[in-house]
Amino acid sequence: MAFQRAAHPAATRAYRDTEDEHPTLPGNMQRDSFAALVERVAPRLGVGPAAAHAFLRLATMTRPSDWTSTDRTPFIYAEAGEVAKMLGLSQPRTRAITCELERAGLIERRTGANGSRSRAAGTGLYFGAAIARAAELMALDDQLTAERQQAIYMRGQRSTHKRHLARALDRLAEIAPRCPEAQAIRHEAETWPSAERLHGMDLTALAAHVDDADRLCRTALDLLEKREESSGGPLENKRPYIQDTTEESLVSCNGHVDMQSAGKPAQDKSHVVPPDGGPNCHENKDEAASGAFKSEFIARLGPQRLFGLASPEMQLYLSGRAEPEYLRFHDFVWAAERRVPELGISPDAWNAAREVMGEDSAMLSVLILDARKSEPGSAIFKPGGYLRGMTERYRRGELHLVRSLIGLSERRRAGHGS
């Protein structure tokens, strides 16, 4: 016996008497925008794509004003055969679709004793059931939007892990071409789902895979450090960097540090300022040389120093990865990618920053704006716009990131001293 989905309570709600209340769409919502919303959330209601699209088509056959009127409910009184013709479907298929929509609580079928429909008799397909659920469906739409955004961020994180892992494996192949551990890591990475398959994964499965990808990448980076150490090569966290002794320890090719409020918008040259110190400036060269799993900023300043300048929220993420002195570039990017959605920064803004600045500078930009937003009196109301402003200033050669770090460091010192 075939399984029958129970009808949604809204589908059996009585709207049959002329004295019934007529539900209306909330706020400024209109028929077409509501029908489009229903089509978006239909999968969560157990409604297939064909039935969801049919709902939209059926809704457009009603008067728009009926959806916002308190004295009538939108309905279609055409006979089933006429509705089938309008939808371009067979009568059995149309009947199956209307039953599917009724079970989901999106329409109510009212028919005469012989199955007829007519305006005079008050029979036909009525949409009051869906309208009565408008608030519920809007909340579901918001939830689905948030889940889609979360999935976009997680797919981006998987992309980061894959990119960093590939670079680490390439480096391992150079210094230890016959390393069995590296081969095992490479083979495991080859079993990862494709980028296309990620789109079909639910959030739970996607999150589990991203965690596995992060674990494998960190395993590869651990192995790389050991192999570099045994071969006498440089390690990211072991290379000499400027010690934290005076404020001059952060001085780059940029000159005077402006100590105005950190809450200024990104367009303010006094606060968001990147390397343009001339052809002999090491900062320019370091920006260009930054690799996919190495950071010139971390190499020069040290992970502890950068950790100390991060916001409390980012520090909490980083602390769960390693002690500050053992943090890697991968850890800072990982933490930045978690702060991006929490700050309300869109995936587009973050991706644009990475494409224009490179991953090193984009990570540092998020660290800086996040730290500034955490400062008392800060006025960064739209971090996404702030990051876009930083990206544009970088594009024009006007974003001095090290100077911004100096400002952060000086304000931290002044705060601790007060």
Automatic annotation (TrEMBL):
Pfam families: RP-C, RP-C_C. It comes from the Bacteria. Residues 9-170 form the Plasmid replication protein C N-terminal domain. Residues 310-409 form the Plasmid replication protein C C-terminal domain. Residues 14-23 have a biased composition (Basic and acidic residues). Residues 1-29, 257-286 are annotated as: Disordered. This is Replication initiation protein RepC. The gene is repC.
